[in-house]
Amino acid sequence: MKALDLPKGVELIDIKQTNIDAATLDWLKEKVGSYEGMFSKRAMKFRSMGLHEMNLTEADYRKYMLEEYTFLKRPFVIYDDHIWIGNAKKEVESASAFFANLK
After folding, report:
1. The total number of structural domains that make up the chain
2. In this model, does residue 2 exceed pLDDT 80?
3. Domain that holds residue 50
4. pTM metric for this prediction
């Protein structure tokens, strides 16, 4: 998040305190293309719950993300209709370049 140098007035939401709601998750899915694309398979619970051994469906990914914030790739940044999800290098670079061009 520090690397992004977000503009003033951007609202940060701690999903540990307030998990994502169904309407927002569904909206993000429409932008991203799939629930799986937002799902973190690195979450500790992914293995401990045996999910890595299951063939999860889109409905399963949605269900688990709504139940437990740790299954959401983080961070996710929403700015108008622009979305970046996760901390992969290309996501961070894309978001950084976008916000740098706003200044």
Report:
1. 1
2. no
3. 15-101
4. 0.84
d(CA 47, CA 44): 6
Residue partners of 61: CB distance under 8 A and separation at least 6: 34, 35, 36, 38, 39, 71
Q: Residue 23 is part of a domain; what is its CATH number? A: 3.40.30.10
Residue pointed to by tokens 């200044």: 103
Angle between helical axes of 58-67 and 22-32 (0-180°, round to 10): 140
Would you say residue 1 lies in a domain? Answer: no
Alpha carbon distances (Å) from 57 to 15, 27, 30, 34, 64: 23, 18, 16, 10, 11
Task: Report helix, strand or coil for 84.
Answer: strand
